[in-house]
Design goal:
It is a single chain. The protein is of the alpha+beta class and 295 residues long. It folds into two domains: 50 residues; 229 residues, PPM-type phosphatase domain (Phosphatase 2c, domain 1), CATH 3.60.40. The chain contains five helices and twelve strands. It has a five-stranded antiparallel beta sheet with strand order 1-12-11-8-9, with helices on one face. It is elongated and about 100 Å long.
C-alpha cells in the first residue's frame, strides 16, 4: 500500500524519510572530505615545521661562519650590524688579521635573499683569497687581485645567469691607518670624518660572477683619528619604507643626523630605527653594516 501525502495526491514527491536519508548521506560525504582535508593539513603542517626547523639550523650554521669576535688592535676597532630578512641571509662579512701590520675586511651581498643567496655567500667566503703562498713565504694580495681572483672563480663555476654578487674587499695598515680597497658593484663606502664631513669613495668594478676578465680599480684613503669607514649593503636603502625613494631619503637623513656618533652608538640607534620602522615585520632585504673606527 503506497502512502500519499495530503499536499501531493500523486505520491510522486520524495517522502520525508528519503529526504533525511539523502541529507545524512551528504553530511557523511562532507565529513569524509573534511577528514581528508584535515589529514592533508596535518601533513602540510608537518612538512612546514620541518622546513622551518631546517631553516633555523641553517641560520645557526651561517652565524657560525660569521666572525665570533672582530679584531680590535690599538686604535683600530670594527663593529657590525647584521640583520637577515629571513632565517638566512644573502649578506656576509668578515674581518681577518692578515699579518702584524694589516687587517683585511670584506662585505658581500648575493643577489636575492634566502637559501640560494646564503649558499652563494658560503662559496664566496671560501673562495676569497688574501695571500699568495710560495716556497719562500707569502705575500699579501692587493685588493684588486683578491677581487679579480674571486670573480674568476665564480665565472669558472658557470653558475646560472641570475647568480651574481656585489662585494667590497679592503685592507688597513694599522700603523699608517691607510685603507686600500676594491669594489665589485657594491654600494660606495663612506668615510665619516671626525670634523663632520661625509665622503663617498668612488671606485670602479663590475659585479662578481658576470663579466669575465674584469679589471678592478683600487682606491686608497688615509683615516685620521676619530674617522670611521662605513660599509653597507643595499638593504639599508629599503629598510624604512616600501617606497624606495622615500626609504633612501630617510636613510640619508638618519645618516646625516647621526654620523658624528661613535660607531657602537651609531649602529645601536640605527638598529632601533629599523625596529620602529618595520614594527615587527620582516625586513624587505638583508641588511648589513660594517664600521671601521679609528679611536
Amino acid at each position: 500500500m503506497r502512502l500519499v501525502r495530503e499536499d501531493d495526491p500523486t505520491g510522486l514527491s520524495p517522502s520525508p524519510v528519503s529526504d533525511i536519508t539523502s541529507l545524512q548521506q551528504e553530511i557523511c560525504e562532507l565529513q569524509q572530505e573534511i577528514n581528508q582535508l584535515k589529514r592533508r593539513g596535518d601533513k602540510l603542517n608537518f612538512h612546514l615545521s620541518r622546513i622551518d626547523e631546517e631553516l633555523k639550523l641553517a641560520a645557526r650554521l651561517q652565524q657560525d661562519f660569521l666572525p665570533k669576535t672582530l679584531p680590535q688592535i690599538g686604535r683600530i676597532h670594527f663593529h657590525t650590524l647584521f640583520r637577515p630578512a629571513g632565517h638566512v641571509s644573502g649578506d656576509f662579512y668578515d674581518v681577518l688579521r692578515l699579518d702584524e701590520k694589516h687587517i683585511g675586511f670584506y662585505i658581500a651581498d648575493a643577489v636575492g635573499h634566502g637559501v640560494p643567496a646564503a649558499l652563494l655567500t658560503m662559496f664566496i667566503k671560501h673562495a676569497l683569497a688574501t695571500k699568495q703562498i710560495d716556497v719562500g713565504g707569502y705575500r699579501l694580495l692587493t685588493a684588486a687581485e683578491t677581487m679579480t681572483r674571486l670573480n674568476d672563480t665564480l665565472i669558472e663555476q658557470a653558475l646560472s645567469a641570475a647568480t651574481f654578487a656585489t662585494a667590497l674587499y679592503g685592507t688597513i695598515n694599522i700603523d699608517t691607518r691607510q685603507v686600500t680597497f676594491a669594489r665589485a658593484g657594491h654600494p660606495l663606502p663612506m668615510v665619516l670624518r671626525a670634523n663632520g664631513q661625509i665622503e663617498s669613495l668612488e671606485c670602479e668594478g663590475g659585479l662578481l660572477g658576470v663579466f669575465p676578465n674584469e679589471n678592478y680599480e683600487e682606491r686608497t684613503v688615509t683615516l685620521e683619528l676619530g674617522d670611521r669607514l662605513l660599509l653597507v649593503t643595499d638593504g639599508v636603502e629599503v629598510a624604512f619604507s616600501a617606497d624606495i625613494a622615500t626609504s633612501q631619503q630617510r636613510w640619508y637623513e638618519e645618516l646625516n643626523t647621526r654620523h658624528n656618533l661613535p660607531a657602537e652608538q651609531f649602529l645601536h640607534e640605527f638598529a632601533s630605527l629599523i625596529d620602529n620602522a618595520t614594527d615587527g615585520v620582516s625586513l624587505r632585504d638583508d641588511l648589513t653594516m660594517l664600521v671601521l673606527e679609528v679611536r
